[in-house]
Amino acid sequence: MSVHSLPDPGAMAAQQRTRAGRLSMLLVVLACAAPVIASYFSFYVLKLSGKPYGDLIEPTVELPAALALRDLAGRPIAAESLKGQWLLTLVQDANCAKACEDRLYMQRQLREMLGKERDKVDKLLLIADDAPLRPELQQALAAGVPVTVLRAPREQLQAWLKPAQGQVLQDHFYLIDPMGRWMLRSPVDPVPAKLKNDLNRVLKANASWDKPGR
User: What whole-number distance in Å separates Cα of residue 111 and Cα of residue 182?
Assistant: First the structure.
């Protein structure tokens, strides 16, 4: 007579628990990701929000983890710290002339024009050189809802954010999503009301999961 070993009930139960645990984890991940996937699908694929005024960046471009950010005091700032909020972003030189000041004013006005949705949007100014900012400009940037001002090497910014053909980085507004993805570029000298419509569409497409504050 042959003797056959029987399966170990304990081992089988452990395997079943492992499979169930993995399935539960997968379902949690899918549940968390589903609103984000759905909003991007609606905005990029179905075009439910209509033709955008600015340029949609397809595919989106990830925030470089190695982006060498510094605050105005020269302290290093982790790129990861920028995530968690929509970023209405400008890239300018420290010698901020009138065109730069006009863009900063428009940046402030655009955020205010969003009404109750404005708390989901931070203003970000990236300085692409090491020259000092004028004291009066620093005061203006800190007034009201402050602008986050950081320095970064120009070559790194140019490798991440791309201007339209024939333009330079300073010519555009760049919209970065809460996951650190560059996804929208404004036209040069945008009409504020039209650019605000793009911002409203983006925020509406993400309303099911997006919350104010980082």
Answer: 18
N residues, the chain:
214
How far apart CA 157 and CA 170 sit, in angstroms, is 11
The two beta strands, 69-70 and 76-77, are antiparallel
> 153-182: string of b/e by CB count within 10 Å (b at 16+)?
eeebbeebbbbeeeeebbbbbbbbbbebbb
Select from 47, 199, 70 the least CA-distant residue to 123. 199
Query: CA-CA distance, 89 to 182, in Å (whole number)?
Result: 10
Q: In 3D, which of 56, 77, 84 has the Cα closest to residue 179?
A: 84
List, for residues 170-184, the tens digit of each pLDDT value.
Answer: 999 999 999 999 999
pLDDT tens figures, 145-179: 999 999 999 999 999 999 999 999 999 999 999 99
